[in-house]
Design a protein that fits this description.
Layout (H helix, E strand, L loop, with lengths): L1 H24 L10 E11 L9 E13 L8 E12 L14 E14 L2 E12 L5 H12 L18 E11 L2 E4 L2 E12 L2 E11 L9 E2 L6 E2 L8 E15 L14 E12 L3 E10 L10 E10 L2
Antiparallel strand pairs: 1-2, 1-15, 2-3, 3-4, 4-5, 5-6, 6-8, 7-8, 8-9, 9-12, 10-11, 12-13, 13-14, 14-15
């Protein structure tokens, strides 16, 4: 409980720091009457509703809140994000020759969304707590016990390596270009640099076919790269959302340098899903394919994607 209390205190401190930053940005340098809350969006990722196995990128959830109206090219909108992630090895009988360590993370961060010379930019970072202090291991174990998943990976039953409890940070710079043939078709190529605890160089393209192609605010799911928009609640209809990217991977917070396995230097991600928005609910259901994340990984992984919000 002591470590969990420290985790909560860390998140509260980081949240207060972000709110201070917002208050500074909302001073006389901006037209305060134009700054407004713009919406929120969440993303849930789980392997059990993907390929059915309990391994590697086993579960994550993130939630973002947006405000708009800041009068700078590099800062037209502000995103505050919290997220959690569980990364685990596979059972030893399935993955032989070494596996990744068990790792959990919770983080809070902020990102500035802007537009420069026709390009959309997203720049920001987050503070993350790794290890036992997150409390996610106990949560995973209780969920597995409650669902009767006796054959699933359980960190309490297996002698495994763990990522040590530590505090780290990561930062993202994304540059994208929205190309539209009409209001129902969007092609959005992008490049992203991630540095800090994680170091990646990512290049990819997303495609939206349907009414959601008209959205102008976009962010990404950290694990799968899936495009997310808080404007989905304001749009009505059905859309196809797809994307693919390739990344040069240098380091990961979930694969320490002194671990048993090394990071796979070239990684691929692809995703596909359906976004449905009505006056009552906004739902996204999809799948993503993640290539091998470490050298010696037996196979790629498929995970399920889900976002649900209701209008009351």
């Amino acid at each position: 409980m002591h470590m969990l209390d420290r985790t909560i205190a860390l998140c509260k401190a980081a949240s207060k720091s972000l709110m201070v930053a917002i208050s500074i940005l909302s001073t006389s340098a901006f037209a305060e009457e134009h700054i407004a809350y713009r919406g929120e969006v969440g993303s849930f990722v789980n392997d059990f509703v993907g390929d059915g196995h309990d391994r590697w990128h086993t579960g994550s959830y993130q939630k973002s809140y947006y405000s708009q109206g800041y009068q700078l090219r590099w800062l037209q909108g502000l995103e505050l994000r919290s997220r959690s992630q569980i990364v685990s090895p596979w059972v030893s009988s399935k993955q032989r020759g070494g596996d990744r360590p068990y790792s959990t993370a919770i983080g809070v961060g902020g990102f500035a969304h802007g537009r420069i010379s026709g390009f959309e930019t997203r720049l920001g970072g987050e503070i993350l707590l790794l290890g036992d202090g997150t409390g996610l291991e106990a949560l995973q174990r209780s969920i597995h016990d409650g669902l009767g998943m006796e054959d699933s990976f359980d960190p309490s039953r297996d002698d495994i390596d763990r990522v040590e409890t530590t505090v780290t940070s990561r930062f993202d710079l994304e540059i994208a270009r929205s190309l539209r043939t009409n209001e129902f078709a969007l092609v959005r190529p992008y490049a992203e640099i991630t540095f800090g605890g994680d170091r990646y160089n990512t290049f990819g393209t997303d495609v939206i076919l349907g009414p959601h192609a008209s959205a102008s605010i976009w962010t990404r799911d950290v694990v799968t790269g899936r495009l997310l928009t808080p404007q989905a609640n304001d749009i009505r209809g059905l859309s196809i959302v797809a994307g693919i990217d390739v990344r040069s991977a240098i380091s990961s917070i979930h694969l320490p340098d002194n671990g048993l396995v090394n990071i796979e230097p070239k990684q691929f991600r692809s995703r596909f899903g359906i976004q449905s928005s009505s006056p009552f609910a906004n739902i996204f259901i999809g799948q993503a394919r993640l290539s091998e994340g470490f050298v010696g990984q037996k196979e790629s992984q498929r995970v399920g994607l889900l976002s649900v919000s209701f209008s009351f």
